[in-house]
Each structure stands twice: as structure tokens, then as C-alpha cells.
Specification:
Elements (H helix, E strand, L loop, with lengths): L2 E4 L8 H14 L4 E5 L5 H8 L7 E2 L2 E4 L2 E3 L6 E5 L6 H8 L4 E6 L3 H20 L8 E9 L4 H13 L3 E6 L3 H6 L14 H6 L1 H8 L8
Parallel strand pairs: 1-6, 1-7, 2-3, 2-6, 7-8, 8-9
Antiparallel strand pairs: 4-5
Helix pairs in contact: 1-2, 3-4, 4-5
Length: 217
């Protein structure tokens, strides 16, 4: 079962927005999806509670204890929304189950600095993971980007240093906010209403649909 971890230690970078729309995409592709929330704020869990029953189902997970994650039976794909401040032992535990890690970041100096340190820790932790499980694939998603700005240029320069794929560059729009308030994703409404946003997801969606590699390096 592919497990996608959405992680960045800085709060407010768009983890829950990204995680919920990832789950929505996978659900609309016909997968049995779980959106697991391990953030104390429970943003994704609250979003899930607002989701209309008539839409493609996205399940929450069963929590056996504060330290044990349990996926419901029949789930084929899992998206995990993580808390701010994810470091050390908690990060290592999350990586034990992750096949892919998506790191959302915004084009600001504070986000860039926090993300740089986290990516280095993430890569070190991934190398320390049990070799039989392979290392998770890591990708970046730029959030709330305003095209043609200096901050966008600085973000691109920073990403070049990380040597990780930029899978999507999502614009700063109220579409995500308005949809989230109703438990919806981009894939739950008429495509024409969010055509520009859907186009920005093409690269990320293609990455998600690739088979998970065995023995990643």
C-alpha cells in the first residue's frame, strides 16, 4: 500500500491543504484512500468530517493508541498529514511507513530556511531507515506562489540547491480555502471552475501514479 507523508516542521505552509487534495485526487482515481491526521490541530480530520457523503469516499484512520497508527481494512492508499515541529524520533517513526514524502513550502525567507534544515534532516533520517524497506522518494511542492515575483525567483534558486524535484507550483488563490470549508477538493467540482489550478497539479499527479520503487536509493 503506497503511503504518502506530507511533512514540513513549519506551521502554516499548507500541509493540510496539500494532504486533503492529494486524498481527493486519489479517491477520484478510484482508489480506497485513507487520510490520516497525526497533527494535534486535526485540521485534516475536521476537513474530513465536513466532506459530503455523496463524493468519492476518503476514510480516516483508526487510532489504536497515541503511538500506533492503524489503517482501516480495504485501504489501498494512505496520505498522512503531519504536525509542525516534526523532528527526531517522531520523524523517524513516520518515515518507517512512508513510501513517498512531499514537502510543501512557501516562497518566504522563513519558510525557505526552515525547509532547508528539515530536508537535510529528512534525507539523513531516510538514509538511516531499514535498508530492506528502501528509502522514500522525496518531492517538493511550492504553495501560495505569486507568479513573476521576486519571492518566486528566490524560491527557484533555493530549490536548485536542494537537488530535489519540484513537483508542483501552486498559485495563491482562494479556491483552496473555499473548497476546504465545505470538505471539497479540486476534483469535486466542475473542472472548468478550477482549470488553472488543475493544470498546476499535472506533474504531481503523474509522480503519484508512478509505481512505488523497490530498493530506492
Amino acid at each position: 500500500m503506497p503511503v504518502i507523508l506530507v511533512a514540513n516542521p513549519k506551521g502554516g505552509v499548507g500541509k493540510s491543504t496539500l494532504a486533503s487534495n492529494l486524498a481527493g485526487f486519489l479517491a477520484h482515481r478510484g482508489h480506497a484512500v485513507m487520510l490520516g491526521d497525526i497533527d494535534r490541530q486535526q485540521s485534516s480530520a475536521r476537513w474530513l468530517a465536513q466532506r459530503p457523503a455523496a463524493l468519492p469516499a476518503i476514510r480516516g484512520w483508526e487510532l489504536a493508541s497515541a503511538e500506533q497508527l492503524r489503517t482501516p481494512k480495504g485501504v489501498s492508499h494512505a496520505v498522512l498529514d503531519t504536525p509542525a515541529g516534526l523532528h527526531g524520533k517522531k520523524l523517524a517513526q513516520a518515515l518507517k511507513v512512508a513510501d513517498r514524502v512531499l514537502v510543501p513550502l512557501q516562497p518566504s525567507l522563513f519558510d525557505i530556511q526552515a525547509t532547508y534544515d528539515f530536508v537535510r534532516e529528512l534525507q539523513d533520517a531516510a538514509r538511516d531507515r531499514d535498508g530492506s524497506a528502501g528509502r522514500p522518494e522525496i518531492g517538493l511542492v511550492a504553495m501560495r506562489v505569486r507568479e513573476g515575483t521576486l519571492s518566486q525567483q528566490q524560491l527557484h534558486q533555493f530549490i536548485e540547491q536542494l537537488k530535489l524535484p519540484l513537483l508542483a507550483e501552486l498559485r495563491d488563490t482562494q479556491n483552496y480555502v473555499q473548497l476546504a470549508a465545505r470538505g471539497l477538493t479540486l476534483w469535486d467540482i466542475a473542472p472548468g471552475r478550477v482549470a488553472r489550478d488543475l493544470a498546476q497539479w499535472h506533474g504531481l499527479c503523474a509522480w503519484l501514479e508512478r509505481p512505488v520503487k523497490d530498493g530506492k536509493d
